[in-house]
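Sequence in, structure out. First:
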Amino acid sequence: MAVATQSLDELCINAIRFLAIDAVEKAKSGHPGLPMGAAPMAFVLWDRFMRFNPKNPTWFNRDRFVLSAGHGCMLQYALLHLTGYDSVTLDDIKSFRQWGSRTPGHPENFETLGVEVTTGPLGQGIANAVGLAMAEAHLAARFNKPDSTIVDHYTYVILGDGCNMEGISGEACSLAGHLGLGKLIALYDDNHISIDGSTDVAFTEDVSKRFEAYGWHVLHVENGNTDLAAIQKAIEEAKAVTDKPSMIKVTTTIGYGSPNKADTAGVHGAALGGDEVKATRENLGWNYEPFSIPDDVLGHFRKAVERGASNEAEWQEALAAYRTKYPEEAKVFDRILTGELPEGWDKTLPTYTSQDKGVATRKHSEITLNALAPTLTELLGGSADLTHSNLTELKVSGDFQKGAYENRNIHFGVREHAMGAICNGLALHTPGLIPYCATFLVFADYMRAAIRLSALSQVGVIYVMTHDSIGLGEDGPTHQPVETVASLRVIPNLLVMRPADGNETSAAYKVAVENRKRPTLLALSRQNLPNYDETSFEGVAKGAYIISDSEGTPDIILIGTGSELQLCVEAAKQLRGEGKKVRVVSMPCCELFNEQSAEYKESVLPKAVTKRVAVEAGSTFGWCRYTGSEGAVIGIDHFGASAPGNVCLEKFGFTVENVLATAKQVLG
């Protein structure tokens, strides 16, 4: 094939392919096969359908694009560069997968403007996309008027066989079908190859029928390699179906154009090699040096800059008219777009004294959510089929359902993993949306990848996790999260909070709402806990603080967290009655305390006081950091048991008597 015989479309598609090939070859690392095979569908989508502004990547009403098959990220980087995004220069592409580059080995929203979500683990991207589409549907239902449309965009996804194998995609797509998210369109790169070879070794189901069963509109492009008209027609048909999401199966050849490696696992995750790159150039008639783009190709792609500016200008004009017609709604809309919190929002947070009846911190959480909801209208979320156990219903709103997207109570169903990833999508769609999701703490293990990606992606999802210890009782060791809190504390950029009473629960929500660049996980009790006069918002914001103290230098420090703070408070009273100087420290959040100044940490846990006891109804892992070699930790490093919660706590040593005995042993 000679270059002269190629159409401009073909040249554009090959430009995408060879930027990917050359970048992977230079890095000697990467996945060239997907960009080579998926380039035609990506070109048609970006060139003929997607609305975006390369010079303003965060323009609100842009279409969202998610590359769920994130290993093929050079496809996205090539498109971003070619269409004129300043965030991906040719030098960035030449630095693919290198230290400090803006073209990392998988798409990362915090590294590269134009990348909407961080898609590393397969399946996360399609689940994020469901969240993006839900956010669009919610904001459109809330703010659009019959004569003013200011929220109107699509979420497009390219996913692969690996995404469809991962269970999270099934969870998310099932919910998307139920909700009828008509502006969600997924293009399935059906190339039949995974790392182990042909997908026939493990994956032979009829994916189209599965999506039909989910309630999706399903189409098939049989020749995704060269039939651009069929790809265009399929996307047009998908856009015409407004009451359900669409999945377009696009059958492609992985590594298309490579004479010896196309349609093999060899092109999936490794550079082609010099000889095969040369042969591919000859086969596709690409007579250009590495990283070279013909002027007419670049000129065609860069038309996206003018189109994008025009699209945004039209929207800004519509928004200006909206602000005139609907000033009150516009104020809220503008605030949510920027992430600005409403003035005085935190004044609605409830406070308590020791005279207030003690309830479970999950109940305090419910009270707090419903105190915030009328003012903090950007707060939305729900539970994994545990609403009446997690106590997460917003009483001011109805249920988010098909035809009622304006509502804020989301029923995720028993889909923890997708729930977390969907909330990541909700948070990444618009800076001001504050999504929360809930389940039993032990089931955080079902959604750990999504929680980790919340932290990595720098999004402030709020995880409401109840039944936080052996104190939940009769459901037994399968539901009692003895190791879960400790394991979550090792995730960077995640705040793990175990509030001890009503004040600390309210304060934990204040921290969570204000932290829009890091997620917060609240571990909440099932059992009732007393309220204290001494607990404070200021103390919780610092992670740990003094609840009660004796005159002079303490003989011993008792550190409690969550439901175990009460044990330290009561034990301290008895020790003081025996003449001991005792300090009680509440530590609801280790991460926040670790971030405080050395002076503050010394004021709470002075190095000179080496006699310390920490108490938490969970793993002892990590507590030696605060107790030191002369201290002790009362915890549980084995599984629990099925019995009433108070019995479990007593049998496993979470009693005032055991705290006293341990403290006396430490004191010698």
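Second:
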Amino acid sequence: MDSFDTPASTPDPGPVLTVRGLTKSFVGNRVLHGADLQLLPGQVLGLVGENGAGKSTLMKILAGVHQADEGSVEIAGEPVSFSHPVQAQQAGLSTVFQEFNLLPERSVAENIWLGREPRRRGLVDTRAMNQDTEELLTGLGITGLKATRRVRSLSVAEQQVVEIAKAVSFDARIIQMDEPTAALADHEVELLYTIIRRLTDRGVAIIYVSHRLKEIFDLCDTITVLKDGEQVDTRPAADLDEAALVRLMVGRSMSSFFPDALEGTTVGEPRLELRDAGNGYVDGIDLTLRGGEIVGVAGLQGSGRTEVLEGIFGVTPFTRGELRVDGSTVTVRTPRQAVRRGLALITEDRKATGLALHQSILDNALGVVRAVFPSRTGAARSAVPSTLSTLAVSARSLSQEAQFLSGGNQQKVVLARWLSAHPGVVLMDEPTRGIDVGAKHAIYEVMRSLAAEGVAVLMVSSELPEVIGMSDRILVMKDGRIAGELPRGATEEQVLSTATGVVPGESSDPVSDPASDPGQPEREVSL
């Protein structure tokens, strides 16, 4: 196997991928029309658009999952047409889908070389396979991930690395990545950045799909925008900013992206109060949340943001301090008790803890009411169509399983599940993670509507523009405590300064970032 540390030969200056006029319809519904792409060796192309824009269809055509109705694809100038993903892989085009396709009971090496295992005298050469895997991982800058480890023991980030390594193992010239950071923590994203830089340095071209605009601008040389199956524009990333990109994607200016408070919204009496609350994760938490307010919670990963919400909701109950709901001191030891007190929690991971994916939209929307307020089920069932309509859920019918909805529509069903219980306090943990900008705006409008009805909203988010754009006040967490409170309209610099304790303009370690010193070699990232 070639080493990644060996400089790649000078790449052919011509395009490694050329797509002309790709069109695809399903049951008479055209979902992609006339898509054109050109990708050079070592280039990262960002593919963006709302859910339903045609991104997944385009990727699946290139991957050999679907066949185009019209159009052509060339790899390195040679026409290709794939009827199976294996054909695409053999031609040098690999895809890393958002949903992992790994066998949990097999090792890292066995997953990477599945069906292509090196053999000796008719038997699988396990030693050679493990050695090839170690070389492959080392070439990607990965240390500490052993070829012999079982996949079921790996973190999400490590599983992502295995998927990428598997794609690279086909000697891929082109790799498609579909939302590769959707399930990664912030500190794990830099690992992916490092891998992508290594690949592009060797001339591998990347098609990168993400709803996180920061990643698009961090990584991509060129950006292609799809909307309703049509290709809106393709431009160098340097010619765009987030405001212009949002405008292309949704036809709405950034200035109207975060809706203002609805007319008539007033801040009322306290609906939730914490006094010196704490448990094994956070301590000394004092906050007051009033009806009609949206209060944002910011802070670095591990600062205690999620833990505050889980303490309030009884997932990890507070063991000290006082919790008051609507003026009365209450004890909340379980989520069921929290729901009975009028609290709701939209969790960070909608697939793992927010939805029953194999159940229908209707069953999901009624899940909380059935479990905690069964006598209200009839009234809640009657209200579900209206609630889903207000949330603009796009689905074939109420009987459609949640697993077949887009990420944005799944998140709206999570909201419907909790709104059916008519909570007075809504706790939101990363409410727009992994959904497109159009669905984000719809969630923001729901939050404003809740506030106008006198509901109190406490929102945790890693996206500072979201915290600043939607919050009436901002609480900043640091080391399990509230480090400060900032008013509406605070700057990102003020939030980060409070979260880190670093005064703007100062640097705690000016040489810690190799990227800041061009003379520093690229560091290897250890898992």
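Remark: The chain has three domains: 17-252, 265-342+423-501, 356-422.
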